[in-house]
Amino acid sequence: MQPVDGRQAKARTARPIAPRDAQRIEQFLHELAETSNVAAAAAVAGLPVNRIYRLRRTDPDFARQWYAALAEGYDNLEMELLHHLRSGETPGDGTPPRKFDTAIALRCLTAHRESVAREKGRRTLADEVATIASINAKIDDMRARSKAGDAAVRKARRDAAKARGNG
């Protein structure tokens, strides 16, 4: 996209992740899975939100991790909502109960249903691809052993025929 005044737009790329930032990125992904809140997760990790979004746009591996963390976060929210609806309380670890807004939780789950389904589809597809590759490798191994067995049987028959002819 070109600026209105005709200047050339600079291609924006994320800076490479410095080793010191790798831990903060991991912390961000962990918090994102816990909260499903990008701004809150970035704040906890001490990272600027704009840098996180830029990194998602420019780093496909980070984008995959981002969507996986969000899908996990929405799975967690769904479980918390079910617990709340069934028991009337929020799941806790001995801390004072926190406010739980069922309507907002339902709206969040509904709003992100597509992206979560897409991520689950990617995971399922990756699992299926790995399973098919494993099955194909086993079939190839079985074919190779069968071929070797057939060759051994043919050799044994030839050797037996030679032995009868010479004997």
UniProtKB/TrEMBL annotation:
Residues 158-167 have a biased composition (Basic and acidic residues). Gene3D superfamilies: Homeodomain-like. Residues 146-167 are annotated as: Disordered. This is Terminase small subunit. It comes from Qipengyuania pacifica. The lineage of its organism: Bacteria, Pseudomonadati, Pseudomonadota, Alphaproteobacteria, Sphingomonadales.
